[in-house]
Amino acid sequence: MTTRAVVRGVGHYLPDRIVTNAEFEKSIDTSDEWIRTRSGIERRHFAAEGQTTSDLGARAARAALADAGLEPDDIDAIVLATSTADLTFPSAATMVQAALGMTRGFAYDVQAVCAGFVFALANANAMILSGQARRVLVIGAETFSKLMDWTDRGTCVLFGDGAGALVLEAAEGAGTTADRGILSTDLNSDGRHRSILYVDGGVSTGTVGHLRMEGREVFRHAVEKLAETAHAALEKLDLSGEDVDWIVPHQANIRIIEATARRMQVPMERVVVTVQDHGNTSAASIPLALSVGKARGQIKQGDLLVAEAIGGGLAWGSVVLRW
Ligand code: UT7
């Protein structure tokens, strides 16, 4: 028998305010047509004034707990992936812990930018396999709208706000790829590429800063590295694209999603796509896609999923899991 980290519940939250591409035409030199064709994005949600990442995360967490039929105090740990924590410290995870009224266990943030949820899943999996925790709430929550330079058309049209969450629970499996739960992970980073996607503020500048991106360069790395990491995680299990029921990709750009699927030889009918509705929500994009994919009736119990993501660092990775 082998311990597995199995998904017991999933949920998400999107702020009420929806901003269409057309709204950007009023303030910058762009068009709905350019944004759609270059990125696949049609609309995104933005948090309200005063609405923080932990607010979004707590709502997604409550939805995932309800789906799991659990109470906050049934959870041993919260791992929250974000690059937009409410404050420099404490962690957004401890703020979610307090908002949920959870009085036991431990909570902390993981920061790997758009790859954050994949890193958080790998981290939660390791805690479950090592016996540190039996039930872990893994959250991806972001308010990237707070990092936008609204005069930079190359970035401000691409990002959105939101949150998604999973409840992972220890369960016994047979030790085969037929088991439910996380089956393999692959994590990578290369700090030499840190200047192609970063925020020009922080503790060292005394400002929050704005997101800066060399889009074309990030695109080039993404197309190459996402298929590589997905293959690496599948190879550990002697599996390939053919065995995959759903790719659940980081939702940055439909052209990156399509190129990765092509390289993995997985048809687009087996890819969960939400980029048109959410834009790039960084660490929230994969749990949002998991929750929406399940609600749409795409993802079903027993399906084999590959989640893959890349972002600032560069940091990238993937997780293979059976739902
Ligand atoms: O989540 C982290 C990972 N991030 C990503 O994966 C993002 C990766 N990059 C991308 O998704 C794409 O590179 C973008 C969507 C950012 C840009 O698409 P692109 O096809 O790489 O366009 P480009 O940057 O090469 O720009 C083409 C043209 C440029 O004009 P010139 O220099 O050819 O005259 C840009 O100035 O499009 C122009 N442009 C725009 N035009 C209208 C850039 N942004 C806009 C805009 N509206 N919003």
Give a description of the structure.
- With 323 residues, this protein is an alpha/beta fold.
- It has two domains: 2-173, Peroxisomal Thiolase, Chain A, domain 1; 181-322, Peroxisomal Thiolase, Chain A, domain 1 (3-Layer(aba) Sandwich), CATH 3.40.47.10.
- 31% of the residues lie in helices and 27% in strands.
- The protein has nine helices and 13 strands.
- The protein has helices at 21-25, 32-39, 53-68, 92-100, 116-129, 215-235, 254-264, 275-278, 285-295, and strands at 2-13, 17-20, 43-46, 77-81, 106-110, 135-143, 161-173, 181-189, 197-199, 211-213, 246-249, 304-311, 315-322.
- It has a five-stranded mixed β-sheet, sandwiched between helices. Strands 8-13-12-11 form a four-stranded mixed β-sheet, sandwiched between helices.
- Helix 4 (92-100) links the parallel strand 4 and strand 5.
- Helix 3 crosses helix 4 (92-100) and helix 6 packs parallel to helix 7 (254-264).
- It is globular.
- The chain binds oxa(dethia)-CoA.
* CATH fold-type name of the largest domain: Peroxisomal Thiolase, Chain A, domain 1
Principal-axes shape call = globular
Report the sheet with the most strands, covering strand number, pairing sense and barrel closure.
5 strands, mixed
Radius of gyration: 18 Å
CATH 4th-level superfamily of the largest domain? Thiolase/Chalcone synthase
Task: Based on the model shown, name its key terms.
single chain, 323 residues, alpha/beta, Peroxisomal Thiolase, Chain A, domain 1, 9 helices, 13 strands, 31% helix, 27% strand, binds oxa(dethia)-CoA
